[in-house]
Request: fold
Amino acid sequence: MRYLIIIGSLLFFTTSCNSQHEKNDMTEEHKYTNSLVNETSPYLLQHAHNPVNWHPWNEETLAKAKKEDKLLLISIGYSACHWCHVMEHESFEDSAVAKVMNDNFICIKVDREERPDVDQIYMTAVQLMNNRGGWPLNCIALPNGQPFWGGTYFRKDDWKKQILQMANIYKTDKNRVIEFAGRLTKGIQQTENIVENTDEIDFKWKDLDNMVSPWSEKFDNTEGGTNGAPKFPMPNAYNFLLKYGHLSNNLEVSEHVELTLDKMAFGGIYDQIGGGFARYSVDKYWKAPHFEKMLYDNGQLVSLYSEAYLKHQKPLYKEVVFETLEFIERELMAENGAFYSALDADSEGEEGKFYVWNEQELKSLIIEDFSIFKDYYNINGKGLWEHGNYILLRKESKERIAKKHTISISDLESKIKNWKKVLMGARDKRIRPGLDDKSLTSWNSLMLKGYIDAYMTFGVKHHLDIALKNGNFIVNTQMSEDGKLLHSYKDGRSTINAYLEDYSLTISAFIRLYEATFDTKWLTYSEKLTEYAIAHFYDTKSGMFFFTSDLDPELVARKMEINDNVIPASNSVMANSLFDLGTILGKDNYKEMSIKMLNNVKPDMDSYASGYANYATLMLKQVSPYYEIAIVGEDAHDKTMEMNTRYNPNTLFIGSFKESNLELLEGKYVEGTTMIYVCENKVCQLPTTEIKQALKQIK
Reply:
């Protein structure tokens, strides 16, 4: 169960700010150079020539702070973050501000994507103090790392005033600061802290119904997503709701998921010309995005739209998947098969400049049929954004647009294809957003799984080829013989001991890669990674996993990542992976660990539904029949792909082209034929060679 200490006093240490400043172009002159110049992170390198004497987060920097008894000023962000750029330009490039920072603090810059463990600590601190968080994230901490003040974005004058005040308070009232920092640290340690649930393990449909019922009251059944703004895609949550709606025959939930996917695909959050999704929409209509494009969103959304296609068979969903994967290969993939992390929201110092259009520009490019183009992409009040620019978005189906303009669907689709080609050509001549070209193992695994899910749904071999190339990149570059992973890769260098998110998401992707190929090497890799994670991350007291390895230097708290967010929690992914891998390998101890993890979070699931969506996916495997589809013989792959054309969300494919020693496949090979066994908890129904007959055995 979760425990949370609410810090209710000494809130004079907190502050909050809002601003509408824009970022201007950075100077290219290098008058200053600091320690970040030796880092590989694009975000840290962006700050390498600030007058602030930035240091990276490492043992040497922390030792320096303790030796000099200087406070830590920890500033955390990421390369695609618009307001991080704004604060850099306003404050961190200002020599007067830099002098205040350098004189009073050891200043540390952190890339939250490279160091999610550090971000997790100080984000929790800021949320406890301010009841909100975000990036840029700024904290002041004692030399031992314990935080006592923090916030997000600050205007320059406020920033200088606040940090100077904190430095003076530490000098004049040190004991009070130390006392508060100790209390806040205790709160950080107890947030998202799990103790073993000793209640009897008993999962029922009612548990999921009790979770979904209050959640559904917050559904926006007009625009999709949840009520209000901003709106995040939350693919993990909708993946569960898609499965739940189908398996429980809950029409309301199924319709809400479909509406949400339709609205996102039509909205400005989706790049109507180049494919791919932005991180979130600032409004409730999915219209105006924060324009950064993150690998983790797009990997998960490809998986979600691929699965939704199986359920609804909508051409729109296929179009989204294919265009998004084309975007990934065009803009976020390296020659070695690694995927880059993100594209910036800004170009030429302006948010969204690369993606928006003015009407005169569009008229000069779309010479014919501009009236149809204007109607299709809403060059009107609906699409108008700011400064006379339009965000291309859709409101009506192709069928309605074609009917309105008395043309055929095929003619309209031909025009759309041409429009996209013309606009992409024009857009390619613009100054591009910045690229974060580091490759994170965890995010690569999400995109890898997206490619496999697309392949399993649509059967395009190219998608499998990309998946295999990326899987081999992870194995050959990021993984050691003993199953140890590294977190980050850039310019030929693999760095940073991996986190639980890297292990859990890679295991999940490799299990799925096995389902697509029946190549047991992916199971071998999955088992190695699992055993390593158990050895170095598992907490025997609670039955959960810590986020950091026991080999990592200690932070002020060793945290567990329990709650799902935009990316599912590493513990929830690990629980699902343990269950599936245990099922395939016949390892009941893995399944028992998985069920214990689920039971631990069960008491909290109905209080924060979206934060436990991935655990709820695991619970679906307990309360609804979970089928092991064992297919053995020469045509095992073809029959798997054929069976997967029907939406059966609670299934796991296990197969072999010949005799296998996997528990569920042992003794099932019959030479000259391909047999299909529909099994549940190791008990199989009568085998068949016919797809239709096998599908009838799945309720």
Summary: The longest helix spans residues 409-427. DSSP finds 25 helices and 22 strands in the chain. Confidence is low (pLDDT under 50) at residues 1-27.
